[in-house]
Amino acid sequence: MALPDSPSALFSSASQELSRGESSAGFWRAQVVGWLFLAIIGFCIRLAVFGSAPAAFWLTLTLEPLAFLLTSAAAVWHGRRASSKHSPLLVLACSVLLCVAASALLASIAYAIHQLFPPQSLRVMPENQYRLGFLYYMGILSIWTLVYFGVAAELAARTERISKMKAETLALRLELEHLQSQIEPHFLFNALNTIVAEIEARPAIAEEMTRRLADYLRYSLDRRGQGLCGLDEEIEAAQDYVRIQALRFDRQLEYRCHIDPASLAWQIPHMTLQGLVENAIKHGMRSDNESFRINLRTRIQDDELVVAVDNPGQLRAPYDLAKGGGGLGNLCRRLALCYPGRNRFSLHQQDDRIVAEIRLRGDPVAP
């Protein structure tokens, strides 16, 4: 949903906003307090001009409550008519005419009240008092109208911004869920096929794989809708994943963790470590050794969470983040959704080992 691009569109949005908001407690509080303040100011002005407390009192007691009723009725009427989506110019013209009519009415009543007091009881009796009264109330009502529509336009723009943010958040959540749904299927099918193949030949291996797979899937399904998970939970799930893969390929796979305790409180996207470990196993399996070691390291450096997974092997070509696909491309897109502009991923060679490293800064964006 886009913000209104033109004044007329914003004016229409303001009308719709007022149709929902003219009966709110906030509007009526502002209306009562505003006119009470104007009544006090009006009484002081009349007392200073006319020098008669009774005249100032009766003028204030009559005119300000009447102005309060007129503006309240205009707000309610406008709110009910706003849903009809009249032209902004028509609404503006009606507002001007109502201001003129209300000012004329108030000035006429003020003139009539003036006539009830003897001229000698008033310090000043302007010859053009009707015109002055009309201009006075025309100014007040014009200011009230400008404030009314100005606040309404701001509320409408804020509502549009909130609606746009909600729509963007929903789109990001759907995209993140779509990316997460692509993670497990191939791994699950391969693990189940291995279990079926091992049931008769090596039932103990099949039993352990079943138990590990159940723990892994329980974590995966329980956290799927959350988007973000604690680093400590991710580490435990990654251990189950590594053990399942070791049983699948019948290889001696050593998995070492070097964890900074301060990093365990960080929230990272669901299945982040699984993506890093999966990449490490894929590269490590290319070696001819019967066993290989995967290291997981976490630390806090310059207010950043640094997570690195390394494995033996030679990187065939520098990793291109722009062209990255598969599991790592999926991981990078999920990091970008949860840590927009505050994440870095690198895949590089360090001696005889391949290192995949992510850096996260600040608080994540909850999907």
Q: What are the salient characteristics of this protein?
A:
367 residues, alpha+beta, Heat Shock Protein 90, 2 domains, five-stranded mixed sheet, two-stranded antiparallel sheet, 14% strand, kinase, transmembrane helix, HATPase_C_sf, transmembrane
Report what the structure shows.
By secondary structure, the chain is α+β, with helices and mostly antiparallel strands. The chain has two domains: 9-117 and 130-180; 185-361, Heat Shock Protein 90. It has helices at 7-21, 25-50, 53-82, 88-115, 129-181, 185-201, 203-223, 231-249, 272-284, 326-338; strands at 228-230, 252-259, 267-269, 291-301, 304-312, 343-350, 353-361. The strands form two sheets. The protein has a five-stranded mixed β-sheet, with helices on one face. α2 (25-50) runs antiparallel to α3, α3 (53-82) packs antiparallel against α4 (88-115) and α6 packs antiparallel against α7 (203-223). It starts with 6 loop residues before the first helix and ends in a 6-residue tail after the last strand. Residues 1-23 have low confidence and may be disordered.
Secondary-structure topology with pairs:
Elements: H1 7-21, H2 25-50, H3 53-82, H4 88-115, H5 129-181, H6 185-201, H7 203-223, E1 228-230, H8 231-249, E2 252-259, E3 267-269, H9 272-284, E4 291-301, E5 304-312, H10 326-338, E6 343-350, E7 353-361
Parallel strand pairs: 2-4
Antiparallel strand pairs: 1-3, 4-5, 5-7, 6-7
Helix pairs in contact: 1-3, 1-5, 2-3, 3-4, 4-5, 5-10, 6-7, 7-8, 8-9, 9-10
